[in-house]
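Per reviewer request, we include the raw input and output of the structure prediction for the construct analysed in the revised manuscript.
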Amino acid sequence: MSNVNVLDGKWLLIVDDEPDVLETLTDILDMCRIDTAPDFESANKFLSKNSYDAAVFDIMGVDGYKLLEIANQKNIPALMLTAHALSPENLIISITKGARAYLPKDRMIDIESFLEDLIDTPAVKPKKNAHWFSKLKPDFDQTFGKGWREKDRPFWQDFDKTLVHSREELENIL
């Protein structure tokens, strides 16, 4: 079995208005080449001149959804990172706007695994990678409460129909 890390040498843009979050993520992802930006303007400048392997955007404080739109135009897969915008509504907005993953900040210690999935699994439209969602669904159930998907049932039914599961998930199902 190979010890090659999918993230080795990958070029990431990380945008968050909290310096400690930028520092923590830079430490966790030390195998990557990383540009950090504390605000929309700095991030937009980086995006206008560089092509990244992936991007991590805070939703609040840096206009993360606008950055997501720019990243999508450049075919840069993005992970949305949030604490204050952790809600079913923002999860749906992130998915609808093309985020390839959505991660609560209290799980950012696990970001390496989520970014590996994001980079290692090509976007297959209209299919969506389900691995990040299956990893976080128990957290969402606990945070949002029982039946949280019922309010937006048509969206979640459509979402479930378009998922692509990892080999590991399929083996666990069987």
